[in-house]
Write a structure and sequence with these properties.
Residues 42-64 are annotated as: Disordered. Belongs to the universal ribosomal protein uL13 family. It holds the Pfam family Ribosomal_L13. 35% of the residues lie in helices and 12% in strands. It is of the alpha/beta class. Among the domains are: 17-23 and 60-108 and 136-176, Alpha-Beta Complex (Ribosomal Protein L13p, Chain: A), CATH 3.90.1180.10; 179-206. It has a three-stranded parallel β-sheet. Strands 3-4 form a two-stranded antiparallel ribbon. Helix 2 (67-79) packs across helix 5 and helix 4 (131-138) crosses helix 5 (140-151). Residues 1-6 have low confidence and may be disordered.
Length: 207
């Protein structure tokens, strides 16, 4: 899907991203040593490009992305703030597919102490539920959706952006053919960086 604004059809095309909520992630880990190593690597490469959402690693010091870090990165992709064509009044974000939400990672005691409130404006109608109860009743996808919703701007575009978040409890989903690929390898799978480098090298030789 894409939007057409004048002659900028390609600039506003949407990309599908995928991330697993239980796979270790170098850019969204909560381990201080791994965060420092990732920052040092970014400094040596002299780049400000954020770590891809689906980048994974086998390092034992790297943890799965925590709820807050994952939600904030997803919100950036849904808004399109990672694109040079970003405009606050334009819905130019991408699609995000999140799998394994049943194993959503939280730090500390948030899973049992975080409380969600709702009220229908009638006296005595205040209802409260903790995160663990909400996950048992509606799954981790609902918890992630609430976290992302709270990080999106409260305007007319929030519902549209939130609709592009596809969260699943397990690893299976019907959007496998939509995920961005390089040389047939989905971004985030083992060896996708090597495929990208080979494509770039081939383009340099061709040019």
């Amino acid at each position: 899907m894409s939007q057409v604004i004048g002659t900028t059809r390609l600039a506003y095309s949407r990309v599908w991203h995928q991330v697993s909520a239980k796979a270790p992630h170098a850019g969204l880990t909560t381990k201080k040593a791994a965060v420092a190593a990732a920052a040092a690597a970014a400094a040596t490469t002299n780049t400000t490009t954020p770590t891809p959402l689906s980048a994974t690693t086998a390092d034992t010091d790297v943890t799965p992305p925590s709820l807050g870090r994952l939600a904030s990165r997803i919100a950036v992709l849904l808004m399109g703030k990672h694109k040079p064509t970003f405009d606050p009044s334009t819905d130019c974000g991408d699609y995000v597919v999140v799998t394994d939400c049943a194993a959503l990672h939280t730090t500390g005691h948030k899973k049992w102490r975080k409380t969600y409130y709702r009220h229908n404006t009638r006296p005595g109608s205040l209802r409260a539920v903790t995160m663990d109860v909400l996950m048992e009743k509606h799954g981790g996808a609902e918890v992630l959706r609430k976290a992302v919703s709270g990080m999106l701007p409260k305007n007319r575009l929030r519902d549209r952006r939130l609709a592009r978040l596809k969260a699943f409890e397990g690893g299976a989903h019907p959007y496998a053919d939509n995920i961005v690929r390089f040389g047939g390898v989905p971004v985030g799978d083992r060896g996708w960086e090597a495929v990208v480098e080979s494509i770039r090298a081939a383009d340099k030789e061709r040019l």
